[in-house]
Amino acid sequence: MKLVAQWNPKAKQWINGRKDFFEKLPKILENLPHDNRPVIWMHCASLGEFEQGRPVLEKIRRRSSQSKVIITFFSPSGYEIRKNYKGADAVLYLPLDTLSNARNFIKQINPMLVLWVRYEFWLHYLEELKRKKIPLLLISGTILNNNPLYRVYRKKLFSCFTHFFVQTERSARFLQAEGFEQNVTVAGDTRFDRVIEIAEAFEPLAPVEAFCRGHRVLVAGSTWTADEEELMHYIKVNPDMRFIVAPHEVDEENIKELQKEFPHSVLFSVLQAKVSNNNAIDGSTSDTTVTNTLIIDNIGMLSRLYKYADITYVGGGFGDSGLHNILEAAVYGKPVFFGPVYQRHFEAVEMEEAGGAVSIENALELETELNKLWNDETLLKASGDCAKQYVYANAGATDRILEYIYKNRLLTN
Fold first, then answer.
1. What CATH number matches the domain at 4-188+396-407, 3.40.50.11720, 3.40.50.1370, 3.40.50.2300, 3.40.980.10?
2. For residue 220, what is the DSSP state?
3. pLDDT digits (tens, 9 = 90+) for 49-69
4. What is the reported pLDDT for 219?
5. How far is CA 221 from CA 243, 248, 300, 309, in A?
6. Residue 332: partners with Cβ closer than 8 Å, 6 or more residues away
7. What pLDDT, in 10s, does the model give residues 327-372?
8. SS3 40
9. Which of 81, 95, 262, 389 makes an SS bond possible with 293, Cβ 3.0 to 4.6 Å?
10. What would the pLDDT profile of 150-180 be if each residue is shown by its tens digit?
11. Is 319 helix (H, G, I), strand (E, B) or coil?
């Protein structure tokens, strides 16, 4: 990581964020209220896992305001975006998983309850929690069996958890086969609860409304280069439509590349300035070409952007990075398109089976399937309705987890 940090900004953040960590930690903890309120520690790999854990944490705080919350991240992508999250008393990087780090960190924060989100099992931290008999819950768990090193240690890792709340029956069966059938619950995925919460608290985005008004709209979220290559031709041959592209990476270099890929585009930051200055947005540019693509050059508004779509596209399905969150789009009743690599994501498989999602393998198939929906309003609406119904039908994981916490008095001395 130190070597890569010389040219990679994220690696540099990863290193710098942990520099002199244990010298800084006492000062951070001194700013927390000095009382006997229980400490809840939630660990997330990155931003996506935080969003899964967030509904549980926020419901606990609403119900049990007498608690302190510490959140840790492994990745800079999560930490940098949520370091000022007001729902926590402290947001930190997780120190590297060594025995001394684990014992030092857990001793200093002294949690009463620990929530581990989805995966990323660090052996020394988990064993130290077990040694100190601190309740440890896995929430929205995904248990896979595809890592040789992980197989060697999995029983050790699993034995540290007080209870597993997993997303699917497949994960439950795997844990049961390992001898953990007594402390496994198929609770579902808390992301369903989170996206419903976001959608029901929707706040409009004036620049986006102005850009989309009077046009068919396709919103492509969390895109990578492979996704954008599949979209390029369709966007080019449909100048009368409006396209919103929100890339997964919003660094300056990637945004410049996107502007080359989509020459008839405008950045959100530029559009926002126009709206703020009361300039009309008529979709034209100085060379009389049509500006039909809005490139989002920030992070944090994607879940609201999907509201403006007629059809959505979610990136990550053309590579090893993994399909991104399709539920953010589906909750608004919008059909969801994505690439061919999605089998590890149960929600994508199930939503496609339900009729609310479409997987495509190339640009030609994308064009065919999109036109099929554009040319049939009844089919378009039915597909969107299926997507929304699927999301609402799978809500409730948060309440199942909370029921266990309070029934077992895990926040009571």
1. 3.40.50.11720
2. E
3. 999 999 999 999 888 777 899
4. 98
5. 11, 7, 11, 11
6. 199, 306, 307, 309, 388
7. 999 999 999 999 999 998 999 999 999 999 999 999 999 999 999 9
8. strand
9. 262
10. 777 888 899 999 999 999 999 999 999 888 9
11. coil
Provide the CATH number for the domain formed by 204-393 in this structure: 3.40.50.2000
Contact 108, 131 (CB under 8 A): no
Continuous H helices in 159-285: 169-177, 190-200, 206-212, 225-236, 252-261, 268-276
Strand order from edge to edge, sheet including 336-338:
265-267, 293-295, 242-247, 217-223, 311-314, 336-338, 357-359
Distances (CA, A) of 169 to 53, 127, 302, 394: 20, 26, 30, 14
Q: Backbone phi, then psi, for 158, in 5-degree steps?
A: -65, -35
Asked whether the beta carbons of 294 and 268 are under 8 A apart, the reply is yes
pTM over 0.90: no
Structure tokens at 139: 């929430």
Same-fold call for 4-188+396-407 versus 204-393: yes
Categorise residue 153: left if φ over 0, alpha if ψ from -120 to 50, beta otherwise.
alpha
Task: Kindly state the tokens that stand for 212.
Answer: 């989309």
**Where exactly are the structural domains of the chain?**
4-188+396-407, 204-393
Phi, psi of 4 (to 5 degrees): -65, -30
Residue-level pLDDT at 279: 60
Cα–Cα distance list, 190 to 343, 385, 391, 397 (Å) = 20, 21, 11, 5
Q: What is the mean pLDDT of residues 96-105?
A: 96
